[in-house]
Write a structure and sequence with these properties.
Layout lengths: L1 E4 L2 E4 L2 E5 L3 E4 L4 H8 L5 E4 L6 E4 L6 E7 L1 H9 L2 H12 L2 E7 L6 H4 L8 H13 L4 E5 L3 H15 L3 H9 L10 H7 L7 H10 L4 H5 L3 H8 L2 H11 L3
Parallel strand pairs: 4-5, 7-8, 8-9
Antiparallel strand pairs: 1-2, 2-3, 4-6, 6-7
Helix pairs in contact: 1-6, 2-5, 5-8, 8-9, 11-12
Length: about 240
């Protein structure tokens, strides 16, 4: 398990990096390369034992771990059961586990050959896995571009500083009674954007249970359904690519 000790982030008996650094897995490709090139962005890039992005909160010294998934990787990892294993290990290894759904730019090749075009049982199974996860960990949307994602991570660190446990309770809905309802409803409520059971049911009917279509939908369309600027603004902040 990751921990902070004497100003350093450790995993088991291995010292990894100073606690003020963001740890990024080297399998993150272009994101890892960009992080290394940004001298003002305090990051270390190497092979992480668990998770894709790791950082510590202060002063609580809680470890935040993000398992980042692009659409194609999300569908593939769910199909070969790797997703379940990764999330289980993340939950056991950090204080604040988060599944990050990384949105792709509209009309990108990856989006057009990913879960956004899947139908039937496979898509339903994936949303069920996401719904199961939000009863145990947090669910966040990550920006499409690498630069925007680094900025988002920096904002996460600032937001969690001094409020780690409280912010996590908001993201996950804790303390709470275990969410019930359809997989779509539970997943939507797990986004932490103040969507309750009634709104979630209405959204499910409109999007025919397609969770990924919902999180990629235009803001005007979502506002027309939920009639809430607060929900739209929270979604905008979560999936901003600026």
């Amino acid at each position: 398990m990751y921990r902070v000790e004497a100003g350093q982030i450790w995993f088991g008996d291995k010292k990894l990096a100073p606690a003020d650094k963001v740890l990024i897995d080297n399998n993150e490709g272009s994101l890892a390369a960009l992080a290394k090139s940004k001298k003002k962005f305090k990051a270390d890039v190497f092979r992480l034992p668990v998770g894709d992005i790791i950082f510590a909160t202060t002063p609580e010294n809680k470890i935040v771990g993000i398992e980042s998934k692009k659409p194609h990787d999300l569908s593939n990892s769910q199909r070969n059961r790797r997703l379940q294993d990764q999330l289980s290990r993340l939950r056991e290894s950090v204080d604040i586990p988060l599944l990050g759904l990384r949105l792709m730019r509209r009309n990108s090749l990856e989006q057009n050959t990913s879960i956004y075009t899947l139908y039937g049982e496979e898509e339903s199974t994936l949303v069920q896995e996401i719904a199961k996860w939000v009863n145990f960990g947090g669910l966040i949307l990550l920006p499409a571009s690498d630069a925007a994602l680094l900025g988002a991570v920096q904002r996460f660190r600032t937001t969690f500083t001094g409020h780690g446990g409280h912010i996590y309770s908001i993201i996950t809905g804790r303390p709470k009674v275990k969410r019930t309802g359809s997989a779509f409803s539970v997943a939507v409520q797990g986004l932490g954007v103040r969507i309750g059971p009634k709104r979630a049911t209405d959204l499910e009917a409109f999007y025919k249970g397609d969770f990924m279509r919902f999180i990629q939908a235009p803001e005007e369309e979502i506002y027309g359904l939920v009639k809430s600027k607060a929900v739209v603004e929270r979604l905008r902040a979560l999936r901003s690519t600026d």
